[in-house]
Task: structure prediction
Amino acid sequence: MKEIQIRDKKFRVLISSDKIQEGISRVAEKINMELKGQQPIFICVLNGAFIFAADLLKKITIECEISFVKLASYYGTTSSGQVKTLIGLDENVKNRTVVILEDIVDTGLTVETIVKQLGIFEPAKIKIATLLFKPEAYHKNIKVDYAALEVPNDFLVGFGLDYDGFGRNLEDIYVLVP
Ligand code: 5GP
Result:
């Protein structure tokens, strides 16, 4: 199989763009059915989820809105060290159905942080949709409602995911070659 080089590392194709689109279509169909009449607001977590969000939203046929947020890291003065804050939320999510759009759910720490911080704005419900889900690594209790594809616990790039800032533009998903 063809290998590609990104910076100092080699990667090979793990999931083709066709398979990715099939997974996204499955998620879209489920959301179209389950959230019909709820006018959900999708919240795309930048940077990684931008391609997933664009492709998914093209397949959403129910009335909806989309907004974009980012998790900003800074080093707080607390003993816990790194603190992540949700920035850019400019829509009123109070009493709304919110669907968080993530690129990948790994340990679940990021999703947990987002759910906690969104909760402050009192949405009616929070759903989680992710392009990729690593079931072996996940150890949180929050339900991942919609996962386009389940993946092994390896380092992946492409379709929005980066290695050192590069590779987000790749149409397929690649895995690191050891
Ligand atoms: P979690 O907080 O669930 O452990 O990790 C989520 C975040 O870690 C993702 O949003 C992503 O930025 C990063 N991440 C986790 N696994 C991978 C991976 O395989 N490849 C890349 N490029 N990023 C990953």
Q: What stands out?
A: The helical segments are 17-34, 50-58, 109-119.
